[in-house]
Amino acid sequence: MALKRVLEPELMETDRDAREYGKIDHAAAEMEFVRVLSEELGFARGGLIDLGAGPCGIPVEICRRIKGARVTAVEMALPMLKLASGRIARSGFSGCIRLVRADAKATGLPPRSFDFAVCNNLAHHIADPRLLFREIARLLRPGGGVLIRDLRRPRTARELADRMGHCCGDTPRQRELLRGSLLAALLPEEAAAFARKAGLKGLSLRVEGDRHWELRRAVE
Ligand SMILES: C[S@@+](CC[C@H](N)C(=O)[O-])C[C@H]1O[C@@H](n2cnc3c(N)ncnc32)[C@H](O)[C@@H]1O
């Protein structure tokens, strides 16, 4: 039987955890995320929303690579918002990224107002991911694109131990955060079922290596 999902705190609310997360080098993963967005899912211009944007590595990379993009980055935790606003200012892309403090499950932003929605490593923070997926469906215009990516929960204690064995360069707190996130993560089939129940249509599910799943839909 697969390991049970164990929820972790929804927000990264302490300065220490935000700093520890911000210190992890996500550059390669962010570049690959934006490559998929641009080359495989056809996002070339327009309004994109990034839900649970954390320190805003993905929004900055989108603006660097996709000249016609205007990004709304949604984050709720104050320490993360502080990191994000520093990073955006240093990147020189303040004119392209709007940082909004809101709950990704109920942003209060106008319906059908985005061409694309992305979400990286947020779903495992949310107890009922249907609420997040419903909000994405509400925010997108008809034909809008989707890229949701997250950690995949290990199916067995052995798999969990193997996955943890591959992160030995990290600090003890970073390892603790990763372990908690892996246990809180969804299985790929659970993510797909939540998206279906939330009315997010036409998504395809991919399992990326042994660590991630993706739900995606190209923009029309
Ligand atoms: C693991 S981080 C991922 C950050 C970023 N997407 C990335 O790829 O680096 C998840 C972020 O989602 C934020 N978060 C969690 N629940 C949220 C919610 N309901 N609304 C907005 N942000 C949320 C957390 O505070 C944290 O900064």
Q: Main β-sheet: number of strands, strand sense, barrel status?
A: 7 strands, mixed
CATH class: Alpha Beta
- Helical amount: 40-55%
Number of E strands: 7
Low-confidence stretches: none
Task: Tell me the number of helical segments per DSSP (H or I, 4 or more residues long).
Answer: 8
Round the mean pLDDT to the nearest integer and report it: 94
Structural class: alpha/beta
CATH fold node name = Rossmann fold
- Please report which band the strand proportion falls in: under 5%, 5-15%, 15-25%, 25-35%, 35-45% or over 45%: 15-25%
Which sequence of SSEs, written as H and E, runs from N to C? Answer: HHEHEHEEHEHHHEE
* Rg calculated over all Cα atoms: 16 Å
Distance between the termini: 40 Å
**What hetero molecules are bound to the protein chains?**
S-adenosylmethionine
Describe the fold and architecture:
The structure is a single chain. By secondary structure, this protein is α/β, with parallel strands linked by helices. It has a single domain (15-217), classed as Rossmann fold (3-Layer(aba) Sandwich), CATH 3.40.50.150. Helix content is 40%, strand content 23%. It contains 8 helices and 7 strands, in the order ααβαβαββαβαααββ. It has a 7-stranded mixed beta sheet with strand order 3-2-1-4-5-7-6, sandwiched between helices. Helix 2 crosses helix 3 (57-65) and helix 5 packs across helix 8. The longest helix is centred in the first third of the chain and has 14 residues, at 27-40. The mean pLDDT is 94. S-adenosylmethionine (SAM) binds at residues 10-12, 26, 52-54, 57-58, 74-77, 80, 103-105, 120-122, 125.
